[in-house]
Amino acid sequence: MAPYMGGSAPAMARQICDGFHLVSVVSLKRLQTAEFDTLIFELEKKLRDARSEIIDVKDTQATQQRNRRILRIEGALRTIRGSLQTRRRKGGA
């Protein structure tokens, strides 16, 4: 079974962005350090894409969707980095 939800890091990043997968410490237990790095890279790429998206100022619904997507990605990155830091502090891989 693949360690990523969805089969790959880009697929998991897409699911996180779309709100289909909520990242928690429990859902990250089966990932190794290299897999964390790959997922962080993919999420940062999605974050750059979301921030560079140009939306009309008057389109409040699109602005809200964009902001929610950015918040989901930033929250996932914060959880992943915290989990990775805790794992490194404990000395586990």
Average pLDDT rating: 89
Q: Give Rg in angstroms.
A: 14 Å
Number of helices: 3
Q: Give, in order, the helices and strands.
A: HHH
Spatial gap, N to C terminus: 19 Å
Low-confidence stretches: none
Helix content: 55-70%
Describe how the helices and strands are arranged:
Blueprint: H1 9-18, H2 33-52, H3 60-90
Briefly, what is this?
By secondary structure, the chain is mainly α. The chain has helices at 9-18, 33-52, 60-90. The longest helix has 31 residues, at 60-90.
What does this structure look like?
This protein starts with 8 loop residues before the first helix and ends with a helix. The chain contains three helices and no strands. It has one domain. It has helices spanning 9-18, 33-52, 60-90. It is an all-alpha fold. The radius of gyration is 14 Å and the shape is elongated. The longest helix is centred in the C-terminal third of the chain and has 31 residues, at 60-90.
List keywords for this structure.
single chain, 93 residues, mainly alpha, 3 helices
